[in-house]
Amino acid sequence: MATPYTQREIRRLIGMFDVYGDFLVGTPFGNGNVNDTFQLTFDQGGIRLHYILQRINSHVFKEPIKVMENVARVTDHLLKKIRASHQETKKRTIRLLNAHDGRPFAFDDCGNCWRAYIFVEHARAYEVLESPEQAFRVAQGFGEFQRQLVDFNGRLHETIPDFHNTPKRVAALEAAVKADVCNRAKEVEREIDFVLSRKDETDTLIKLNASGDIPERITHNDTKANNILIDDLSGEAVCVIDLDTVMPGLSLYDFGDMVRSGTNPAEEDEINLDKVGMRFDMYKGFYEGFVDAAGKVLTPAEKEYLPFSGKLITLEIGMRFLTDYLSGDVYFKTRRPRQNLDRCRTQFKLVESMEAQMKRMKALL
Ligand code: GN1
Ligand code: MG
Fold first, then answer.
1. I need a surface site. Which of 11, 49, 129, 190 has the fewest CB within 10 A?
2. Which residues line ligand 1 (CB under 6 A)?
3. Fold of 7-119
4. Would you say domain 132-363 falls under CATH 3.40.50.300?
């Protein structure tokens, strides 16, 4: 659950940053599963302005300063790119506010790490995408993000080590089954078998990376459809958000997570599995948008494994939900009992739907 904060506390927290004007109100914002996010309204000389204030979940991000170093470096790089291409009126990047000591984050009295952003107006994040055109735009946005970072200098911190190391995610699931701290393993035997029967495929991308067929890049690693803002007027993807997991990774992780989150017409925790499945027209939109924006930098093996990546990342995130359910719901925020299990089941239903459509997906290549 999101920690409740009073208006007084929010006012004090934003007071750690260089913001001018009068604080009016702060309200919980968005649907993140990890951090606590608030939208703040300020009055600056008669004009209403918004900011985002966010608490970094230190259970998930053990080294928040490293997270912030990555975010600051990446957003600086993106801003330079946007300015160099004279796209300031069309494209945006997250812009951090400085705290009074000049650093782009601040710690509260309890040791929580906070940061603040300028709010991107007239744009929104969609939980469920509405059309193949929208999928195309989302994939273009994430593809362009990757392309813009191709010439980034230096290596970023690995903010969560082995984040998309699927075999290690399988091992974590197996450990959780063995420990079975909540006595839930019996209830989810079918789900556990679902993963184990696909275990052999889980090291496919890691092997292709080791053999040199798929290069390491700077990737976003959490390209859920709701992590990109769509402009209300133009319908274009204008700003990639949630940069906490931007780090070295494979481009296929980003494509895969887009397909996972954006082809499903239902919510991530939908209980009625009849509503869950991969919409092929949405997949096609993602494929065309991603190739349009990043195609020139992708290697033949990266292209070949685009369809597989959707399935792999869906399986991986499904097993993370399952692992968390078995562990007593300690990682992802939950708002009701069994929510992690429902999330897991939607993912596995999607995996099946992707398997059934794999031929069609490959035929697009
Ligand atoms: C988390 O916070 P949010 O919703 O953007 C998670 C992702 C999962 C996603 C599933 C750091 O992202 O990896 O894919 O939930 N982020 C982290 O909805 O674990
Ligand atoms: Mg997010």
1. 190
2. 32-34, 60, 222, 224, 227, 242, 245, 268, 317
3. Phosphorylase Kinase; domain 1 (3.30.200)
4. no
